[in-house]
Please model this.
Amino acid sequence: MTTIAIVGAGAGLGLAVARRFGREGFAVALISRSQDRLDGIAATLSSEGITAKGYVANVRDPASLTAALVAADEQLGRIEVLQWSPLPAKEFMRPVLETVADDLVGPVEFSVYGPVTAAHQVIPGMRSLGRGTIILINGASAVRPGAKVTGTSVAFAGESAYGQLLHDALAPENIHVAQLIIPRGIGGGEPSHEPTALAERIWTLHTERGAFRTFAADLDN
Ligand SMILES: NC(=O)c1ccc[n+]([C@@H]2O[C@H](COP(=O)([O-])OP(=O)(O)OC[C@H]3O[C@@H](n4cnc5c(N)ncnc54)[C@H](OP(=O)(O)O)[C@@H]3O)[C@@H](O)[C@H]2O)c1
Model:
């Protein structure tokens, strides 16, 4: 059994992706900041016959993130799939003229240092398997900067550049790096944005691969 590590695993997209991959025989490592919430999600998955365990980490703290990924790999099985999908903090989303340099520290730790830390932790294991998938989940500001969401716009640009470079570097090694852009709110009424539909898209990104960047729906619907 191999493992999907979901970094930023909550009751929305995280749970839906855990179910989708769990159904296919993956063990699921759920990573976020609250052991109680993680235990609740893991219990739900276990009751459905899926092997799942929660690991506490703050993605802005590289040591905690690395420790969680190491423990998951040892306890559940080699990490074959990494999903990067923590929900950005509201404080990252300020108008451009109200954003000073210090306001960008959090977004950059969250969306650049975090993914780089996680990728370096899991790539050696993927190499040993001879396959792997790294999936970055972002909102529309990764593609079109939003004047009122400066921190995420700036940091997602860095995450996107890193992901594209990683995609190109790892493709010859049978490791696929993908970015899924979700233009509007999850569960906001669009069928394409229901967590189960998005989880299906993410399963397809893993199984069928394709280009680095894909969209859950048109940006301008
Ligand atoms: N929700 C939307 O409307 C929407 C729209 C477009 C794109 N997206 C993307 O979809 C993904 C999230 O999906 P979702 O909203 O359905 O979320 P979810 O899977 O329900 O939960 C995401 C989890 O991220 C965790 N998280 C936040 N900050 C963290 C940190 N510093 N360290 C570790 N974990 C952290 C939170 O748990 P704790 O607070 O317990 O740590 C939260 O439960 C993100 O990639 C987001 O950019 C979401």
